[in-house]
Amino acid sequence: MTLLKVEHVVKKFGGLRAVDGVSFALDRGEFLAVVGPNGSGKTTLLNLINGVYKPDEGRIFFEGVDVTELPPYKRARLGMSRAFQVPRPFPESTVLDNVVVGALFNGGYDLRRAREVAEEALRYVGLYDKRHELAGRLTFNELRLLELARALAGNPKLLLLDEVMAGLTPKEIDAMVQLIRKMAEERGIAAISLVEHRMRAVAQLAHRVIVMHQGKIIAEGPPEKALNDPKVVEVYLGRPWR
Ligand SMILES: Nc1ncnc2c1ncn2[C@@H]1O[C@H](COP(=O)(O)OP(=O)(O)OP(=O)(O)O)[C@@H](O)[C@H]1O
Ligand SMILES: [Mg+2]
Known about the structure:
The protein is globular and about 50 Å long. The protein has 9 helices and 10 strands. The strands form 2 sheets. The chain has a 6-stranded mixed sheet with strand order 6-7-8-3-9-10, sandwiched between helices. It has a 4-stranded antiparallel sheet with strand order 2-1-4-5, covered by helices on one side. It is 38% helix and 26% strand. The chain has helices at residues 42-50, 72-78, 95-105, 111-125, 140-153, 170-187, 200-205, 223-227, 230-235; strands at 2-13, 16-27, 31-35, 57-62, 65-66, 80-83, 158-162, 190-195, 208-213, 216-221. Helix 3 crosses helix 4 (111-125) and helix 4 packs across helix 5 (140-153). It is of the alpha/beta class. It binds adenosine-5'-triphosphate (ATP) and magnesium ion. Adenosine-5'-triphosphate binds at residues 13, 16, 18, 36, 38-44.
């Protein structure tokens, strides 16, 4: 059942231990939210998982394979897909072509099959009707959905989402979280989503929450339990977490 295993990873920037001995495991189809104050190491942890950084200590296993030394593109081929905080589409290409690229490069399909997979992914996220529009003409929310479709078309086992909810309206956030949960439950795609500290609602929809502080995990468990942990309340200035 275990898809990803992170074993005591450490990442230093000079004297700073941005990620300081983090360990956790993730199952197939599990939706994990990582929350924590600014600078607590969330993005650095994601960069370690997908290979942008190599850890100074510790190992990372994906489907039982030690991927610690693999570059990001090789991890992508194994089924790790990353969606970015600021979506970066090819603005002069159509929505469909943007997704076809994802299917070709990460899904390993031939062109004909890639087009089918891309159309299916667009239907899944609700952008099918816009498939012939130029990506540059999409709204911010639609660009986020395009990122998800592009990731989905790559046939991922794990989605890594860096604050994909930032800048969306509450209603759009709701739809996005539901979609991530649906992908986890219907497709068995695991997701690790970094969550802005104000978005309690998002973390509550995850199967499990990890709370980071100064590079360490200070609480972990089902949302209600982790978010109300006394250590977490203390870090958030003595208030209940919201
Ligand atoms: N490339 C880098 N070089 C030096 N220091 C870095 C680098 N990247 C991150 N840091 C530092 O490491 C710590 C963790 O940063 P990180 O971006 O992982 O935090 P975060 O939890 O994602 O924060 P935020 O909520 O602001 O996105 C911070 O103190 C940050 O300043
Ligand atoms: Mg960050």
